[in-house]
UniProtKB/TrEMBL annotation:
Name of the protein: DUF4136 domain-containing protein
Superkingdom classification of source: Bacteria
Lineage: Bacteria, Pseudomonadati, Pseudomonadota, Gammaproteobacteria, Alteromonadales
Length: 205
């Protein structure tokens, strides 16, 4: 097998397998205004980022759930790299100097929610490491009915922690371009304002 053939096989493997093994938060191709802004429901939008650094995470995710037991809603906002191909592959919506990541959008019942768990995972050959909080935590947000709720940027840092901030200029411009049919006059900023987990830094105040 000559060198050119080997290169072609690697390229095909990356295309067929590497990209398929990546994962990203939910971002529908289209969102109907009547579904997103239906009475009793709200659209939550935001971004999930990962630090740009050598030997950084292959999985980075944070979980959100409704605090009302009558609302059965639990969302794993997940980012995942492909480590099955010869080169690590990603499916990012944006790449910036410090962070790269994805936008997300979910239609959920309106009400009170909380972030309560996260996962950072790193694998290198036969070795792997997981970072999780020791206990469930509570970082609450409110989802308003009939509104587009921007809940911020959630960033896995290079120090194995998280930062929560607002990146409205970048994120909302992206969403408006992707979903020009939505009624953007209903947009509200619904960032978390408190948190009881020391490994998560709130930069929203």
């Amino acid at each position: 097998m000559n060198l050119l053939t080997k290169i072609m096989i690697i390229g095909v493997s990356l295309t067929l397998f590497g990209c398929k093994m990546t994962d990203r938060p939910n971002l529908p191709t289209t969102i109907e205004n009547k579904q997103a802004l239906k009475e009793g429901y709200g659209l939550i939008i935001g971004s999930l980022s990962r630090a740009n650094a050598a030997a950084i995470y292959d999985i980075w995710s944070i979980r959100l759930r409704a605090t009302d037991p009558q609302i059965n809603e639990d969302i794993n906002i997940l980012g995942k790299a492909s480590t099955t191909a010869p080169f690590v592959a990603y499916d990012f919506d944006y790449r910036e100097k410090m962070y790269s990541g994805n936008l997300f959008a979910y239609i959920v019942p309106a009400g009170e929610y909380e972030f309560y768990d996260y996962r950072l995972y790193q694998t290198r050959d036969a070795f792997y490491r997981n970072w999780n909080p020791k206990n469930e935590f509570s970082m609450p947000i409110s989802v308003k009915s009939g509104a587009i709720n921007y809940i911020g940027e959630y960033s896995a840092t290079k120090n194995y922690n998280w930062e929560v901030s607002s990146n409205e200029t970048r994120d909302i411009a992206f969403f408006k371009a992707k979903y020009p049919n939505l009624d953007w006059s209903t947009l509200i900023i619904a960032l978390p304002e408190k948190n009881n987990e020391k490994s998560i830094l709130l930069k929203t105040n």
